[in-house]
Amino acid sequence: MQVAVLSDIHGNWRALKAVLVDLDRLGVSEILSLGDNIGYGPEPAEVVRALRARRVVSVMGNHELALGSRSYLARLHGAAHDSLRLTRDLLDPDALHWLENLPAWLVHRGARLVHGCPPQSMTVYLFSPTPNRLQRLFASYPEQRCFAGHTHSLELFTERDGVVGRERLAAGPLDLDPQGRALILAGSVGQPRDHLGRQAKYLLWDPAADSIEVRALDYDVHTTIRLLHERGFPAVNARRLGG
Fold first, then answer.
1. Cβ atoms of residues 64 and 90 within 8 Å
2. C or N: which end of the chain has fewer Cβ atoms within 10 Å?
3. Average pLDDT over residues 149-153
4. Which backbone phi and psi does 40 adopt, to 5 degrees?
5. Tens-place pLDDT, residues 83-136
6. pLDDT tens string 55-85
7. What angle do CA 73, 76, 82 make, to 5 degrees?
8. What's the per-residue H, E or C state across the chain?
C-alpha cells in the first residue's frame, strides 16, 4: 500500500490540487504532511479545508508555529512574516485552531515524521549537514526511516554500520537499503526550490516494498501568481514560482 508524503504546501492550493488529482488517479488515499501547510501562498483556507476533508495526518511546521507564537513570528524574515499576517486574515478560527494544535512530530507506520530536523525540531534546517552531524542525528532517534521537510529540497541521507551518505533525489522510484537507515527530505508541493525545477513535488512511499518515488507535477501556477499579487503577498513569493 502506497502512502503520499507531502511537505511545504505553503498555501498553494493549485499545486495541492494537482497532487490530489494525481493521488486519486493512482488510487492512493493515505496522505501525510510534514508541515508548513500555510504561509507564502494565497489560498490557505482552501488548503486546510482539503487536508481536513482528506483526513491528512500532519505534523507542525515552523509557519504553523508562527501562527500561535508571537515571539517566533517576530523572528521570521520579512516575506515569511508578512505572508503569515496575511494568511491569518484568510483563515477562520476553526482552521487556525487545527493548524495551531498540530503535533511537533509523529511516528507513523514505523517512520518518524518531523518538519525540520529529527528528532523533533520544527525550526532547524538540514542544509548540507556534515558527516559528523549526520551521525549525531541518526543517533538521536530510533526509527529506521525518517521524513523531513523545511529545506524545500529533495535529498536522501543514509546511515549503515556507522557510515553516512548523502545524495540528491531524482524524479522516479528508488529502493531504500533494507539494512540501512534513511532520512529523506521530501521537497515542497507549493514552494519548490530543488534541482528539478518549479513543478509541485511530493513522495510516494511504499512501506512494504521499502521504496520511495519522487513525483513532479505541473499545476496552474499562473492563477497562484495572479492571486498572490491580488491579495497583496510579498512579490518574492511570486518570483519564486516563476512569476
1. no
2. N
3. 98
4. 75, -40
5. 999 999 999 999 999 999 999 999 999 999 999 999 999 999 999 999 999 999
6. 999 999 999 999 999 999 999 989 999 999 9
7. 75
8. CCEEEECCCCCCHHHHHHHHHHHHHHCCCCEEECCCCCCCCCCHHHHHHHHHHCCCEECCCHHHHHHHCHHHHHHCCHHHHHHHHHHHHHCCHHHHHHHHCCCCEEEECCEEEECCECCCECCCCCCCCCHHHHHHHHCCCCCCEEEECCCCCEEEEEEECCEEEEEECCCEEEECCCCCEEEEEECCCCCCCECCECCEEEEEEECCCCEEEEEEECCCHHHHHHHHHHCCCCHHHHHHCCC
Distance CA 74, CA 170 (A): 36
Residues whose CB falls within 8 Å of the CB of residue 222, separated by 6 or more in sequence, listed in order: 243
Q: Write out pLDDT tens, residues 21-63.
A: 999 999 999 999 999 999 999 999 999 999 999 999 999 999 9
CA-wise closest residue to 39 among 22, 59, 63: 63
Distance CA 230, CA 233 (A): 8
What order do you get walking across the sheet with 181-186 strand by strand?
A: 105-108, 111-114, 145-148, 181-186, 154-160, 163-168
Instruction: For residue 1, name the pLDDT band (cuts at 50, 70, 90).
Output: confident
Residue pair 56/33 in contact by the 8 Å Cβ criterion: yes
All cell numbers assigned to 238: 511570486
Q: What whole-number distance in Å separates Cα of residue 223 and Cα of residue 211?
A: 34
